[in-house]
Amino acid sequence: MSITWYLAVSAILFAIGLFGVFVRRNPLVLLLCLELLLGAANLALLAFDRHHAANDGSILAIIVMVVAACEVTVGLGIVVAMHRRGQPIDVDRTRELQG
Amino acid sequence: MTSTVGTLAWLVLLAPLFGAISIGLLFKQLSGRAAGALATTVLFTSFALSVATLVALQSEPEESRQVTANLWDYAVTAGLDVKLSLLVDPLSVIMMLVVTGVSSLIHLYATAYMVSDEGYNRFFSYLNLFVFSMLVLVLGGNLVLLIVGWGLVGMASYLLISFWYRRKTATKAGIKAFLINVFGDVGIVLGSFLLLRHAGTVDYLELFAKAEGAFAAHPHDLTWGLVLILLGAFAKSAQFPLHTWLPDAMEGPTPVSALIHAATMVTAGVYLIARLHPLFELSDVAATVGVVIGTITLVMAATMAIVQTDLKRIIAYSTMSQIGYMVVAVSAGAYTAGIFHLMTHAFFKALLFMAAGSVIGAMGGVQDIDRMGGLRKALPFTFACFMIGSLALAGLPPFSGFFSKDEILGGLLERGDWYTIIAAIGYLAALLTACYSFRAIYKVFYGDLNEETQQIADGHHLHFAPANPSTGEAEDYEVGFPGKEHHTAEENLPMKVAMGTLAFLAVVAGLLQIPHVTHVVGDFLHPTFHASELLEQTEASTSTALLGMGLGTLAALLGIGIATQLWLKKPGSTAGIQAKLQSLHTLLSNKYYVDEAIDLIIVRPFRWAGAVFERHTERLVTQTAVVGGSSGVVRIASALVRAAQTGSVRIYAAVVSSSTAAILLYALVVR
């Protein structure tokens, strides 16, 4: 099977994820969409890896997974903390860090 | 590699440091006399190690009695060779013995004398710190370590002068001493730069070896360097015109006056000149400056002491005067005599201060000799010690001060030329010395008992409401003020032991070096000064020595005679003399107006310049233009950037992704 299909699926996943990040306001969904983005990237990496018969892409993919795990841990922690302190679970209403 | 001598010397140095740090850290845990006991033990250990160093050094052959003990290299780069090294030679060993020996006895004295003070532990931590600093100063093997020690003793002196830190006069005196000493420190640092510039080394022995060749083409730099270094020596040793801090330093507790402002720290200048003697022999100008300033100081201080009525200040002026003798000696080439006088002076001057402390203890803190009198019977031990100290100070045979002072003046006579005049001035000042020291004795111990001293004779100490003796300001007994009880040697064994030992030394130490009979000190110091030509020129011949000793005895007896006539036989006769010489008396009791002159020449112009700069430069240029300008630029720039910081996560995501896309497109299209 040609690499094109893999890349097409990866691109579609990436587009869905990016769309979600742009339009959704719930931080939990935002995190899910970020995971989609990273999954799309991983898919592309592995596709190129197989295509070139090298190992670099799979190693990079594992690193991306580690980063993703860390990011979700911190992100969920922040969301839970926000909820506990009675903050709105809405990224548009939490803009205290503006300049 | 470090030899046995070097290892022992390092241990001598570390013992008081250990004491200072452990008492400093445990000051809340140590109760009762524990801190004093610890500090004193540490010091006696240090003294024992010094003796071991002496023994180890003496077992070396004479030509290798200059041991450099390098612990590690501190900054060894091109053109700089700063090492953490000690120079152990006879000069540093004799200084080490004097410092640790006298300090141990003073620590012992202080364990009893300071026991009622709320700051007892703090006091001993500072005292140990001081001894450590002083040992760094005398043992350091290069100019950099010397400067380190020099600065540290200045700090320890500041801490101890201001020991009663809630007393305004004490903190003022501490700041004054610190400022004047820092002025001298700057001189030493600049002078060292000049020496380093041409000789290319800060190590003493290398410096001396290279000096003649290195400075042959730059004699002026050598002179300026040494004069700047002398500035530091004068500040630390309270020589004219940087002497004004020493009398004020008497605000500190009496053991501090005995240790720092009589026996050890103030003699650092003498040590420094003796240490750098190969350089001073290359520069006549610098040596002459030393002789002249020393002479001015020794006369000035002796005359000021005659009209002074504060017991401790009288002794402080006599310290200045005696250090004047030492500075003259080591500047004129009579190194052995200078160091010998340094040693005997440490003994009898520490003894005098301790005895004065005992008197002040009985008087409940009063230091005014006009309020004392007839204390001979009430304080017999203190009286005996004060008498021995004064006889040694006055220079009466066979007390130690006689032989050491005589050796200085005999050396000057032998060198001839204009040094003869200096010697004559020296004898005149010796007469004054005998006169003022016996004035103090007669006023304090002889005469009739007055109302207050009658109580002491009846076996009570005086007690007053706590107050500052110099201003009368009310105080309390909390930390930062003197303690509730005062102590005398009569009822405290440690004080008696310390004073008794020093009294013994003050009597017999002179026998070490009797002209043409014994020369223990001279032989011992020979390895340090063996290359000196001046030392031989100042070794008095038999006839000169005899003449000098005769003159010295005569001056001392005459001085004592005058004092007896004026203050013992006809007390009150001085009032008439004072009335006749009113202007002289005013001049002397105002200390020659040196304080006022310094105020006029240095303090006021600086204060005026400070006020002007504060008003114009500081407000306009610094605050408005520099500070306001730079912060304004930052404020405007940040206002522009701040707009991008919206706080909305979705906008950030859009910006990140669209700009990444833009960069990718750019890369694709342009390629």
Q: How does this model look, in words?
A:
The complex is a heterodimer of chains A (99) and B (671). Chain A has 99 residues and is mainly alpha-helical. Chain A has a single domain, classed as Helix Hairpins (Orthogonal Bundle). Chain A has helices at 3-23, 27-52, 56-84. The N and C termini of chain A lie far apart (51 Å). Chain B has two domains: 4-589, no CATH class; 595-670, no CATH class. Chain B is globular. The model of chain B has no long low-confidence stretch (mean pLDDT 87). The chains are: A mainly alpha (99), B mainly alpha (671).
Q: What level of helicity do the residues of chain A show?
A: over 70%
**Oligomeric form of this entry?**
heterodimer
**Would you tell me the structural class of the helices and strands of chain A?**
mainly alpha
CATH topology of chain A: Helix Hairpins
Helix segment count of chain B? 27
Q: How much strand of chain A?
A: under 5%
Major sheet: arrangement of strands of chain B: 1-2
Number of domains of chain A: 1
Shape of chain A: elongated
Give average pLDDT of chain B, whole number: 87
Order of helices and strands of chain A: HHH
Quickly give the structural class of chain B: mainly alpha
Give a quick account of the main beta sheet of chain A: strands, pairing sense, barrel closure.
none
Record field, number of beta strands of chain A: 0
**Given the C-alpha coordinates, what overall shape of chain B results?**
globular
The major sheet of chain B is characterized as:
2 strands, antiparallel
